[in-house]
Design goal:
mainly alpha, 72% helix, globular
């Protein structure tokens, strides 16, 4: 049992550590995405620096990391509901602090979407609708991401989901707020950047 848990966590973390934003920038633009825009290795900064096409590709691949991590956890321990949760959480940690890229990654929201959609689709969808609506209305990706993370535990409770999923969602919310702490300051100060679908350049 203990070996299964360790294997699932390691596998999830290594999957999450594959930074598609960084790789796309290096392979196709010859840049380190972390030295441009916001300095974040994620889909939003990819949009700002490299445009909508690369951003969509990075978003899809980052979501896929979360989906894959959960399914690997299910494959390793098909009879244990906690193991896929741990594997999924590890993939988000890997995205944030990737071992392959000097522990400098993104903020984990896209990978979180993949994990949540696989573990608890309907509660995640309910929280996600609010987050997406917020992004469309305000054009603040950080605000929508934080609303999604904050509302997920509430949504899981309303849907009467398992206690371990609610605890997991609380951990996700804390991690999301920690990773977005600088964005929170900018939001309060009115200095946060709004999303644009035009490439800003390098």
């Amino acid at each position: 049992m203990d070996v299964e848990w360790v294997l699932a966590v390691i596998a999830g973390y290594l999957i999450g550590s594959v930074s598609f934003s960084f790789l796309y920038g290096k392979w196709f633009q010859g840049i380190d995405i972390r030295k441009h825009g916001s300095g974040n290795a994620g889909a939003t900064n990819t949009l700002r620096v490299m445009g909508p096409g690369p951003a969509i590709a990075v978003l899809a691949l980052d979501i896929a990391k979360g989906v894959l991590a959960v399914w690997i956890g299910r494959w390793i321990a098909p009879d244990e509901s906690v193991v896929p949760i741990l594997s999924g959480f590890a993939s988000i940690v890997g995205h944030n602090w990737p071992v392959f890229f000097a522990f400098r990654g993104g903020k984990g929201i896209a990978t979180m979407i993949g994990v949540v959609a696989t573990l608890c689709f309907l509660p995640g969808l309910a929280a996600g609708i609010v987050g997406i609506a917020s992004i469309f209305i305000t054009r603040f990706v950080s605000l929508g991401s934080l609303l999604f993370a904050a509302l997920l535990p509430v949504s899981l409770w309303l849907f009467d989901r398992e206690t371990e999923l609610i605890i997991f969602s609380l951990a996700l919310a804390l991690l999301a707020f920690y990773r977005h702490r600088s964005n929170l300051v900018k939001l309060v100060q009115g200095k946060e950047n709004k999303i644009s679908f035009r490439r800003s350049g390098q």
